[in-house]
Amino acid sequence: MTAQRRVVAEVLDGDHVHLTADEVHARAVAKLPEISRATVYNTLGELVSLGEVMEVATDKRAKRYDPNAHRPHHHLVCAQCGAIRDVHPSGNPLADLPDSERFGFSVSAVEVTYRGVCPNCAAA
Amino acid sequence: MTAQRRVVAEVLDGDHVHLTADEVHARAVAKLPEISRATVYNTLGELVSLGEVMEVATDKRAKRYDPNAHRPHHHLVCAQCGAIRDVHPSGNPLADLPDSERFGFSVSAVEVTYRGVCPNCAAA
DNA sequence: TCCTACCCTGGATAAAGTCCAAGTCCAGTA
DNA sequence: TACTGGACTTGGACTTTATCCAGGGTAGGA
Fold first, then answer.
1. Residue B94 pLDDT > 80, yes or no?
2. Do B112 and B90 contact (CB within 8 A), yes or no?
């Protein structure tokens, strides 16, 4: 555990946190000015393979990193401002996929992204 | 309807077709050698805004384009080889999101991506 | 035929992510 | 303390994906 890794882990803390790699880097630099982009990418990659952090692809440009990896959840995204909330649907979407639609795959995971307009953008 | 647009539309035809913009360009060039990347991107963008083609973000690298935009469906992705199939789950995942989890958003759409291993990769 | 509006092209540019060679730091050993 | 090996970090170059822009072409109407 080096100073660099600690800083990255600190940046990724809290609920409804979904930062891009660049945002993580920017916040890490604020705490540790000499940290490099490559280190941030390396550390994020390690956190992902350790299962501590999830990659989220709600936005089609940059990957986002979600520290809330231990409790399964999905995402609700504002189509206008890009705000993201963690949500917990009732029911298990995996069960909604009948065998006839599995094409012989062994299906192990499901990602759900709800899209809509957040109250702020609806008011504006 | 120009020759360039017709070629792009022809490339994007069929079931379970999910090409990246680069793949669309490569196939379009095979039919019309002087077509430029910019035109492919422009045309894809127009097809998307006309609702003829859907953007799919199953892969975190490049966007993919799915011509099967008229019948709602979701995607099943092989984690190893990246193969993509269109699937039609039973039930409506939108209904699984309780009001208490909507944070005041007006939710209008949902994308579901199932992940697993395809029969080919499982055999290998 | 000329004009206008739209379309296409190629190249430059931007954004996001990865790779790599070199340097630094640290723990263990003598 | 001095050395060694290994792991980590750095900065920059590079790749991939996508967009922008200036210039030129083409079709159809006047």
1. yes
2. no
C1' (C28) to CA (B93) span, angstroms: 57
Which pair of structure tokens corresponds to residue B61? 């690298």
DSSP code per residue over A1-59:
--HHHHHHHHHS-STT--EEHHHHHHHHHHHSTT--HHHHHHHHHHHHHHTSSEEE-SS
Q: Do A90 and B113 touch (CB under 8 A)?
A: no
**Residue B22 tokens, joined:** 């680069």
Distance separating alpha carbons of residues B101 and B106, to the nearest angstrom = 11
Tell me how close the Cα of B82 comes to any Cα of chain A, in angstroms: 12
CA–CA distance from B124 to each of A108, B77, B85, B107 (Å)?
18, 17, 19, 41
**Distance in angstroms, CA of A42 to C1' of D7?**
13
pLDDT-above-70 percentage for chain B: 100
**Residue B106: alpha-carbon gap to chain centroid:** 24
Nearest-10 Cα torsion for A30, A31, A37, A41 = -130
